[in-house]
Amino acid sequence: MELGPLEGGYLELLNSNADPLQLYHLYDQMDLAGEEEIELCSEPDTDTINCEQFSRLLCDMEGDEETREAYANIAELDQYVFQDSQLEGLSKDIFIEHIGLEEMISESVEVLEEAGQKSQKRPFPEELPVDLKHRKLAPPSSSLLSCLSLPAGPIQIIPTLSTLPQGLWQISGAGTGVSSILIYQGEVPQASQTPPSSNPAVHSLPKSPDRPGSTSPFAPSAADLPSMPEPALTSRANLTVDEMSPTQCPAAHKASRKLPKWPESVEQFYCSLRNKYQAKPAGPEGILVEVDLVRVRLERSGGKSQDRELTTLDWAERQPARGGLGEVLRASSNHRRPRETQVIAVLGKAGQGKSHWVQAVSWAWACGQLPQYDFIFCIPCHCLDHPGDTYRLQDLLFSLGSQPLSGDDEVFSYILRRPDRILLILDAFEELEAQDGFLHSAGGPVSAEFRSLRGLLASLFQRKLLRGCTLLLTARPRGRLAQSLSKADALFEVAGFSTQQAETYVMRYFECSGATEHQKRALALLQSQPFLLSHSHSPTVCRAVCQLSEALLELGDEAQLPSTLTGLYVGLLGPGARDSPPGALVGLARLAWELGRGHQSSLREGQFPSAEVRAWAVAQGLVQPTPGAPETELAFSSFLLQCFLGAVWLALSSEIKDKELPQYLALTPRKKRPYDNWLEGVPRFLVGLVFQPRARCLGALAGLAASTSADRKQKVLTRYLKRLQPGTLKAGRLLELLHCAHEALDAGLWQHVLQGLPAHLSFLGTRLTPPDTHVLGSALEAAGRDFSLDLRSTGVDPSGLGSLVGLSCVTHFRAALSDTVELWESLQQHGEAKLLRAVKEKFTIEPFKAESMKDVEDLGNLVQIQRTRSSSEDTPGELPAVRDLKKLEFALGPILGPQAFPKLVKILEAFSSLQHLDLDSLSENKIGDEGVAQLSATFPQLKALETLNLSQNNITDLGACKLAEALPLLAASLLRLSLYNNCICDVGAESLAHVLPDMVSLRVLDVQYNKFTAAGAQQLTASLRKCPHVEKLAMWTPTIPFGVQEHLQQLDSRIILR
What InterPro entries does this protein's entry cite (predicted)? Predict the structure, then answer.
């Protein structure tokens, strides 16, 4: 809208539909090219003000009495809105604390030494757009004097007054950091004339859309926008005066010093929190080797079970988190919506290094590597699982966790104002299984109330409390709570140590212990035991190996590590057990078992058999203080140690009936009251303790006299294990049986398991860890027979895949195409030409089912490798995997099917032995007539094709005619053709009937559920009489009257009606 000359009062203009910005630019007649502008806020796009232009507008408005009365009424409305009941309580306190000048009065201000210099500041949430037409005047505020030197004369900026003297104009701006200011051109009124007041409101100064930096006096206040989120009201709470104005008057410069980023109490709390996390634990606990994180997802385990399990990805499908932990948190926070709580879950088995990763996160923040967070609170969840206790949010943040800190109300109120700058870490989340219903519990937003732990967790996860923060959880993938994490914003898995990381840990361990002379010798000991080396992907086992190696190397040069996990922990506990109080080990083992049955690992002082046992366990490092818990509460030093002690109790206890012992192996779980196997390491340790020689196993722990009861248990387990048929076990339980047999070190048991292995071993969908790969390889090599392996969707690493498929006893194997190609490239780079040829000969993809775009692309890559191989002089010939493929299924559905099918058609000619091409899918591929035309062009190369299934592909008469033209090329081989459930009408049926006599090898034709009528059916029936070789013609369709179909069937019994 174009504005003419201004007529009437400013009240009429206020009530009109005129755009204030156009009014404002009407006064802008001067060239601003050389004008100096003043920065009023600290956002990157700075707000600027033209002094002379603005002053002229204010002077014109100042002379209108009706306008002054109107703004007085607006100010009263502002005060009324401010006192609304919605701002009572905590919300009102936060609002006042954020926008008032109380903090600024008590703190000094420092002037920048050079004009135009900008101080560093933290990023703030973007402010919502505001109405550019109306604004409200703020109530009077307290006194503070500062001034700006502007080009067209001194314009003074001072706090608002209770009454406005002549020549003063009140204006507000969120960008200024103060509640409201007065702009006065001329001499400044005396400071003594400015009585203090309270409860100011923040108003915003929007930028002109025509020229960045220009501002409008008609901007609305934040109170005009009741739905405005809190960051829009608080985004300037931390600005210093230096950030607000680049040039200050000399008077202000003399009396000012630098305003701190936070209030003093907040700054002190920040320093204490940073010092807390900067302090690294002494000894092995302080060794930080950053483990890799892999993005994962949870999916249903299958069947009727509602449990969710981690998806097993192929090695090439893994998506490692690039850039370390900082990038993980930064990338996750970048994708969240404003003011929404971000939930990040890090999953991993016990001992995989989740707590150490959390420790690394805290340390990185303390070192300034996570600047997006003002505060980090790390809380071990075992400190929270105390039935009957009630908590407030400040208790969770300040009083729990290791080294509780004191935080006052000012610190807590700051945290509530800036939840988007808070990272809350809940470590070992599985410890809260008793609270598993919190997601459906009622939670409230009030943080000052005492409530149960369930209610507090409900408020956090339902985004009613501390909304906008980042929640970082670590948990085991099993258990009831882990099932609820499938809807987390980001889900990661701790991958554990690689071989190089394990070796790095060993070097750092001996460096921290001051025994650097043993580093190389310790590495040699570990590398001499491949089984323990494979288990060192677990940081817990890696540390146990270092502890035993250190003890053995101090004894002499004849040191040698054991070959089993059982021997590893017997070696660690044996020396201490010999010097223990009577019954100490057995008593502690019983505690470990009973706590494990209750899914617990923490011990209280009264649970120990005696004070001597407690002191002995602490001295031996078997239990240790729990961070953040009372001094009387201890926990086992590792989950694997608790499993070992639980197995010791089962092996030595007379309270466990012999007939109950096999259930704890969890190989054939019972349907009624099954054993949950929470202590998942118990089966292997139990078999090892019972079967290994007494003198160097149970006898070394409890004495030969106490271990004699294990003989009877050995007989019970032997009968049970030898009744098992390994060929009938599922893949996961077969692997567990192999581990148990390996731990036993019993030749008879080992041979029994090897003899029962089937010739074809499928581990499809079962995760293979490095220890699994090692034990499986040892079993296959010792069996002395040939095997074929299916290693798809196992997540096996490249080195493990190479060790398995390189065995001479493995004649054929299936694995992910991408993983296999990566293995080939690795072997070629290392010059292992003989092994490379052997692996290529063993690899097969028969049968192949493409269910994703990646499957089609991988198949294309395989064909490209063959074409490259065929063009090479030194390695002529086809790849056996491509040459021998006989069955190919394509099931990508109606969306991806039409996109991926042209890629598949381009490589079909490479499969010269293809006999079965199935393009049917339950969700319908819908390749259409175009796809049929593309497929028909490949028929000359598909000379071995016997079955062609084109059902449910949206084929019409056009596609049927194209197909009929090309079918004679398959006349000598095609046995079965299915066009079920398409859109073929009479024209298409007639073209098929015409070519039918030429298909001399065709035995079955299925054209059911199409759209041809009786005319098309009669054409097919007439053609069928000329085809004595056809055995069945299925052509029932709803468009043909049933009587006609029956008549046709009577004419030829080979017609099938369903």
Answer: Leu-rich_rpt, LRR_dom_sf, MHC_II_transact, NACHT_NTPase, P-loop_NTPase
List Cα–Cα distances, 845 to 461, 579, 813, 879, 886, in angstroms.
46, 59, 8, 11, 9
Pairing of strands 146-148, 168-171: unpaired
pLDDT tens sequence across 568-612 = 999 999 998 888 888 899 999 999 999 998 888 888 878 888 999
| Tally of CB atoms within 10 A around 389 | 11
Contacts of 345 (CB under 8 A, 6+ apart): 429, 473, 474, 475, 485, 488, 490, 491, 492
Give me the half-sphere count of Cα atoms (radius 13 Å) on the Cβ side of residue 702.
23
pLDDT single digits (tens) 361-381: 888 899 888 888 899 988 888
Strand, helix or coil for residue 94: helix
pLDDT digit string (tens) for 976-991?
999 999 999 999 999 9
Place of tokens 């490209």: 864
Of 519, 530, 573, 525, nearest to 545 by C-alpha is 525
**CA-to-CA distance for 359 and 402, rounded, in angstroms?**
11
- Rounded Cα distance between 78 and 739, Å, is 75
Sequential DSSP letters for 710-760: HHHHHHHHHHHHHH--GGGS-HHHHHHHHHHHHHHT-HHHHHHHHHT--SE
Q: Where are the beta strands (DSSP E) in 469-601?
A: 470-475, 490-494
Q: What is the 3-state secondary structure (H, E, C) of 1027-1053?
A: CCCCCEEECCCCCCCHHHHHHHHHHCC
The model carries a pTM of 0.72
At 672, which helix (H) or strand (E)? none
| Angstrom distance (rounded) from CA 870 to CA 862 | 12
Query: Residue 54: CB partners within 8 Å, gap ≥ 6?
Result: 183, 215, 217
By CB neighbour count within 10 A (0-12 exposed, 13-18 middle, 19+ buried), where does 999 fall?
Answer: buried
Provide the pairing of β-strand 623-625 with 634-636: antiparallel
Extended beta strands in 454-510, E state: 470-475, 490-494
- Record the tokens describing residue 146, joined without a space: 């500062």
Distance CA 329, CA 490 (A): 10
In this structure, the dihedral spanned by the alpha carbons of residues 58, 61, 67 and 68, taken in order and rounded to 10 degrees, is 50
Q: Which of 475, 486, 476, 437 is nearest to 458 (CA)?
A: 437
Task: Provide, rounded to the nearest whole percent, the portion of the chain with pLDDT above 70.
Answer: 67
Cα-Cα-Cα-Cα dihedral of 216, 131, 69, 51, to 10°?
Answer: -10
**DSSP 3-state assignment of 1058?**
coil
The Cα–Cα gap between 169 and 396 comes to 48
Strand partners, 379: 426
Distant-in-sequence, close-in-space partners of 678: CB < 8 Å, separation ≥ 6: 596, 597, 599
Q: Which amino acid is at 888?
A: L
Instruction: End-to-end CA distance of the chain: give it in Å, rounded.
Output: 74
Supply the pLDDT for residue 445. Answer: 57
Give the pLDDT of residue 183. 45
Question: In b/e form, how buried is each residue of 249-275, taking b as 16+ CB within 10 angstroms?
Answer: beebeeebeebebbbeebeebbeebbe
Cα 522 to Cα 865: distance, rounded to the nearest angstrom: 43
Residue 888: enclosing H or E segment and its boundaries?
Answer: strand 887-890
C-alpha distances in Å from residue 879, one per residue of 741, 829, 837, 905: 38, 19, 10, 19
For the record, the structure tokens of 83 come out as: 């006192």
The model's pLDDT over 873-898, given as tens digits with 9 standing for 90+, comes to: 455 568 899 999 999 999 999 999 99
- CB contact burial 175-209 (16+ within 10 A = b; e otherwise): bbbbbbbbbbbeebbeeeebeebebbbbbbbbbbe
Alpha-carbon span 312 to 771, nearest angstrom: 17
What residue type is assigned to position 97 of the chain? E
Give the model's pLDDT for residue 64: 56
Spatial CA neighbour of 845 closest among 855, 831, 854: 855
